[in-house]
Task: structure prediction
Amino acid sequence: MKILVTGSAGFIGFHLVKQLSEQNHDIVGLDNINDYYDVNLKYGRLLESGINQDEPIYNKLIESKKFSNYRFIKLSLEDKNEIYDLFKKERFDKVVNLAAQAGVRYSLENPQSYIESNINGFINILEACRYNNVKHLIYASSCSVYGLNEKMPFSTHHNVDHPISIYAATKKSNELMAHTYSYLFNLATTGLRFFTVYGPWGRPDMALFLFTKAILENKPIKIFNKGNMLRDFTYVDDIVNGLTKIIEKAPHFNVEWNSENPDPASSKAPYSIYNIGNNQPVKLLDFIEALEETLGRKAVKEFLPMQPGDVPATYADVSGLIRDFDYKPDTHFTEGIHKFVNWYRKFYNV
Result:
């Protein structure tokens, strides 16, 4: 298949491109390489996937020197005309939209950037899919859409009308926008609510990266809600293994869908929503203890109150993915931490 992966210089996108390329699909990766976090890490990922040009030229496809079936283009989702031209020229079979302005806390500081990327950019992807016969759009939502929900585990069959950050609100909006296009234009869409993904080449604004850096530099780590946090930490390889299966199988309308008792996870349109997580929440302090053991150092802990927009616990019900795709996350968090630390020490020469 010919597949577009947006956000391909990002954490999950980088890993997905690698696996799809090894499966001999024809891949185009897209990323605007913004400076939300250290661009050197993004360029490192590009280099690892064979994109050797130091500064990719905007809106120009570059061939990978590592994968003969992978090309990369530096482009923003917000650039409507360039996005439309790319779709018209390449005629993608499937699209995986992972590009977005990420981060819950940053959305409190700069909400406009989330509207521009996650709303305006996403409508450009939907329109491009609509007019270019894309067979299946897979897009990143987030567990943050559960907001004030406290019933555990989080289920896609639950109502998610109470987000508590602009980031979460934009992701909920993406799900609504996708459903509209599925219903009106028969565009098959699958939304994936990611749960705290971690692993090698991970994001510097995520907990494992921040904790590792601080501990190795003998600096205190910030532990919010005084450590009373549960997180459904999910290793990136488990995420990508699930994604590759989902790409293969587009959703159909649910023949049992009842408009008098509507199921939020499906529809009479070709539309599905899934949680993609580990299904085994971990106490944050246990996660930190495992990291301390791997690093051979104790952390200096600074206990702080809950941050605005954050939630005390995440726990994914992944029964839908197990039923439809035989999804089996099987990386224990101690193993995942070990792999991350090995990568971190090598990449930063620590």
